[in-house]
Amino acid sequence: xxxxxRPGSLKSVDLFFLVLTLENMEEKMSKRRLISFxxxxxxxxxxxxxxxxxxxxxxxLLKDDIHILEILESESNKEELRDxxxxxxxxxxxRKNEIIIIxxxxxxxxxxLQRILFGTSKAITEHLHEKDPYxxxxxxxxxxxxYFDLGQGLDYVYHGTTTFRGLHNQDVLQLSEDQxxxxxKNRIFEIFPEYYLIKVNNFDDIAKDTLDExxxxxxNEEIKEDFKAxxxxxxxxxxxxxxxxxxxxxxxxxxxxDLHYQASMVESSYKIGMIKGEKIGAEKVAINLMSRGDMDIxxxxxxxxxxxxxxxxxxxx
Length: 317
Hints:
- The protein is α/β, with parallel strands linked by helices.
- It has helices at residues 12-30, 37-43, 51-62, 112-126, 177-183, 210-220, 232-238, 246-292, 297-304, 308-316, and strands at 68-72, 87-94, 99-105, 140-146, 157-160, 194-199.
- The chain folds into two domains: 37-243, no CATH class; 254-316, no CATH class.
- It is built from ten helices and six strands; from the N terminus they run αααβββαββαβααααα.
- It has a six-stranded mixed β-sheet with strand order 1-2-3-4-6-5, with helices on both faces.
């Protein structure tokens, strides 16, 4: 609510622009920048005081009431050179004694699916003691937040599980009563690792449910006032860039600049490779056309896009 010292002390035009300016300031404040989720995973979400944020995100994704017991050792827990890579991961244990691996990946990686398979397999073997029976194998859930286009698909959230389907009757194999009691599981897929792939760039910025509200934040680093998803209120409070100490804020900005630089390097390398590949292809076509002997150099140039000088150089070779 705005109040002024003396009615009539400002001209109506001045008052209009003052109100407009203050409204713009309020709008900017409501859209105050938040720390990206990967940086939060590196620096803030490992604190027990901020488990509520992670629990909220996982709860909305897994459609479950998640309670984190502890943060486990993972690759990015260590301050090493690999921190400069575009991958951040966090491994947590919940009160069901399930292991949840959360990973953020920026760079394209063609064998990414194989790597997350390796990651879940490694977690299983690490948490099975030498003399334990196989019934003690830990449940692993792999959550992957991806800022590159993985595979082919129109959706922005994919869920992968393991099922066994009959070849003849098409029935799905179920656990027996004894197995359910022994494993503490109701269905077979609950034994095997589960995978969630969130393709952030495929999201259309329209939040249709509370999970979408989280994905909107992951994509835009912004939490709207009307968002109700679990954990977002706490995230908006704790992940405000302006609340960072100066040195951390400088480190964060440098980290973001490094991500932009690495993305530019990847894009440049890809485009240079494409250009070189196209030129090599054009040269091969030009050589084939010249070998036929029924086409002049100008026509070959028009067909391939190569200059006459480049074609003459190919003839000389």
